[in-house]
Amino acid sequence: MKHPFSNFQNVTELLVNKRWLWHVLFWLAYALFQYRNYYITIAYYDVKYLEFMLITRIPFVACVYFTIWLYRRLIAKNRYLIYATVGLLTWASLLAGIVTFQKTYLQTLSEIAETAWSDIYWNQLPTYLVLFILVSMCKYFKDNFIKQYYEREKKNLQLITELQHLKAQISPHFLFNTMNNFYGLAVEQSKKLPALMVGLSELLRYSLYETNSPTVPLVNEVKYLKNYVELEKIRLEDTLDFEFTVDVDETSQIQIIPLMLVVFVENAFKHAKNVKEEVIRIRIRLAVSATNTLLFEVRNNCLKDDSLQNFRANGIGLENARKRLNAFYPGTQHELQIEKKENEFRVLLQINFTATE
């Protein structure tokens, strides 16, 4: 299904890559603004007024582009006072030249001949100063629009890079352990091996080829987690007390950023393995409420002296996960809690998908 913001994204890219469109839009807006004046001039005034208006548009256009050039040269260097001074003087000088030309070109018209130069000048000066401010604001808006676009692109590129790094970070040690486990099952001629190999194939296919989009279906992430867990359980089956509760509709259309949830599950297995004198206990709960809020909880037992600070510092991809959550679900759209209670680590993640739509 087409993303609702795809059209907006296409327009944004067009405005960034085809910057002449900004000039077209500006002059179209100016033409619409001046339409009434030209209509009245053509309908009710001498033709010389129309000629005067068309001739004076030439220095006006030149002044607009001089202002843009001035903005580019001075604002980038934070020379605001110089820009304002030179800009205001330029537009005031433009008006002085136009009024002088008007008194000369339209001298045969009584209403112009009988009006003092100073009266015409001071009457129109506020309009020209406002035009200077308007051109400056348009230039600022355009530059800021393009700057924010590239900042977003840079941020997205960084997130993609971090995701690729996360894939590379997870795969080597996980594959090493899994292949060792497969070797042991092969020696034992275990009937579990074919199904587990299919699970590994599905896991690798998903992580390498289906997670290149900014978001993926939540149901696909759930399948990925189940495959991952089954492979992790191979060596720990005799010493593992494991529960995985899922309450997600298989027809759900909810999208989530890829390889996010597995980070917390992998950390649970990693830290639980440090418990050597008792059963490894891991509890995972994944549910989506009626209000499209994801509740993802992971609990695992740990050593008494294993600190929360150590869990956060040594957690695989935890800092990366925080950054991605903050980028894709900013502010109150998500809440991540990581805490330790006695001999147990607990991670609780909530994402409000309704707020992201």
Describe this structure in words.
The protein is an alpha+beta fold. It folds into 2 domains: 6-150, no CATH class; 191-356, Heat Shock Protein 90, CATH 3.30.565.10. It is built from 11 helices and 7 strands. Strand 6 (334-341) and strand 7 form a beta hairpin. Helix 4 (80-105) crosses helix 6 (117-187), helix 7 (193-209) packs across helix 8 (218-236) and helix 8 runs parallel beside helix 9 (261-272). The radius of gyration is 33 Å and the shape is rod-shaped. Residues 1-5 have low confidence and may be disordered.
| Domain count | 2
What's the architecture of the largest domain in CATH terms?
2-Layer Sandwich
The CATH homologous superfamily of the largest domain corresponds to Histidine kinase-like ATPase, C-terminal domain
Q: Within the CATH hierarchy, at the fold level, what is the topology of the largest domain?
A: Heat Shock Protein 90
Mean pLDDT: 82
Helix content: 55-70%
CATH class of the largest domain: Alpha Beta
Structural class: alpha+beta
Strand order of the largest sheet: 2-4-5-7-6
> N-to-C SSE series?
HHHHHHHEHEEHEEHHEE
* Envelope shape: rod-shaped
Number of helices: 11
Number-wise, the strands total 7
**Which runs of at least 5 residues are low in confidence (pLDDT < 50)?**
1-5
Cα distance, first to last residue?
Answer: 14 Å
Strand content: 5-15%
Largest sheet: 5 strands, mixed
Query: If you compute it from the alpha carbons, what radius of gyration comes out, rounded to the nearest whole angstrom?
Result: 33 Å
